[in-house]
Amino acid sequence: MSAQVEPLSTKEIEDRLAELPGWSVDGDLLRRRYAFDGHLPAAVMVIHIAQIQEELGHHADLTLGYNRLGIAVNTHSIGGRITRLDFGLARRIEEIAPSHGAR
Questions:
Q1: CB contact at 8 A, 82 and 75
Q2: Is the pTM of this model over 0.90?
Q3: 45 with 100: CB under 8 angstroms?
Q4: For every residue of 68-83, which 3-state class applies, written as one string?
Q5: Distances from the Cα of 54 to the Cαs of 16, 47, 57, in angstroms?
Q6: Mind listing the pLDDT tens digit for each residue in 23-65?
Q7: CA separation (Å) from 57 to 1, 44, 69, 75?
Q8: Which of 14, 23, 9, 18 is nearest to 90 (CA)?
Q9: For residues 73 and 61, is the Cβ–Cβ distance under 8 A?
Q10: pLDDT band for position 4 (cuts 50, 70, 90)
Q11: Euclidean distance between CA atoms 9 and 41, whole angstroms
Q12: Can you tell me the distance from the alpha carbon of 72 to that of 80, in angstroms, rounded to the nearest whole number?
């Protein structure tokens, strides 16, 4: 991670959350839960997210359950705070979610 990455202020986080319905902040984590009509679509979305994470060099904790997927992300390199990198990953995930039937 670049030394230029800084934690976002509460206002910056609130402003960015307004653009990502379904996402929320829980402590120092940016979170989202998705539901699916079947387990396989959830598992396939995990693989797609893994590809995006490798491309970005930024990774979330993914929790795959039956017909659901939980995502939690922050920037570990600056002490586990929320940064622009986390919102960038969240936006990319939102872009692919509809194609996997996520809601």
A1: yes
A2: yes
A3: yes
A4: EEEEEECEHHHCCECC
A5: 23, 11, 5
A6: 999 999 999 999 999 999 999 999 999 999 999 999 999 999 9
A7: 8, 20, 21, 11
A8: 23
A9: yes
A10: confident
A11: 35
A12: 11
Give the residue carrying structure tokens 């995502």.
71
- Which two structure tokens, joined as six digits, stand for 5? 């990455």
SS3 of 48, please?
Answer: helix
Q: At 13, which amino acid appears?
A: I
Among residues 63, 58, 61, the alpha carbon closest in space to that of 86 is found at: 58
Give me the DSSP letters along 81-102. B--HHHHHHHHHHHHHGGGGT-
Report residue 55 as tokens: 């491309």
